[in-house]
Amino acid sequence: MKAGVLYIVGSFKSGGTETQLLEILRRLDRSRFVPHVLCINKEGGLLSDVEKTGVEIREMRFSRLLSPLSWGRLRSHAAWARARGIRIIQGFHFHGNLYGALLKRGCPGSSLVVCEQAIYGPRAPRHRWGRAYYYRSTDVVLANCEAVRRAAAERDRLDPARITVIYGGVDIDKYHPRSQVKEPGGLVIGLVGRLHPDKGQMILVDAAPAILKEIPSARIVLIGEGPQRREIEGQIENLGLGSSIHLLGDRRDVPELLAAMDLLVLPSASEGFANAALEGSSSGLPVVVSDAGGNPEIVEDGVTGRVFRVGDPTMLASCILDLLRDPQVARRAGEAGRRRVERMFPLEEMVHGHERLYEDLLARKNGSAPSIREAS
Fold this sequence. Notes:
- The chain has 376 residues and is of the alpha/beta class.
- The protein has 16 helices and 13 strands.
- The strands form two sheets. The protein has a seven-stranded parallel β-sheet, with helices on both faces.
- Helix 11 crosses helix 14.
- The longest helix has 19 residues, at 347-365.
- It is elongated.
């Protein structure tokens, strides 16, 4: 009998979590599992792609949890899930995890997977209460890298052995080494990510004068949209770099844009596991990342790119210039990065890892293995 799997997500914005979920929906073995999606807001740049998978999508249609209307709708969602034979509930981010724990109460026999995919500092008391609540109902805590596992264990005092790691993956066939398609022109340095302080665009802008002093013809392109756009544009104007740094906004042709670059930068101030770094290496690019979160698990310093200290524009500029001064060094780093992704982060392994996890949870419920709480 096929097992119903319910994924709970905030929206379908073009983010790393949502992209990974889309690939799971596309590739999950439908002979064993029937996926469904419950979203807080049925919107976002990836919505049309999710709809094309044929998965049933249900919108929560509320923004405040603590209200009579919200509780009534939660009961309705639980009845909807029971009718579809949901055996696995998987939440993403804080609200997805919390709603998953609440829905589990209305779905007897189901298992809850809560996903921790970012590293962050102290949060409001309601977030601490919420995490404590959903951890009590959790069968598996799923992290997307070792750094997130360590951070979650320390922050929430969890036994690291209770946290499973499944690395994010990338469809490497979508990306093409730049040596095959790169057109002549000046050097292009790229950054792909939401325009937000966590992603560190301002660090790259601050490093730009040193980079352009040595390579005046270089161009820097920032791909993504977000709340920090105006601040970034202001800093570019203050530094007089408008002709060298370009903001391209959200784009659906990222593989083609990566193929036109010479180097990818991810100067994150805070990070979990950066899909953009995987995409850059898949494109045969040398990748320069900060040492935030799981970045050093993707980029091998001095082999597939460089790793610099968070928030240090001087070190960032030095790492970029070290790679761009010698095209052969950059080429070897890019080739090594693509091999590393092929070996360690294939998309198929990410999906198979989830399938193995679901099978294990179903076996536990059938009494052949202890639950996470029984084992602790």
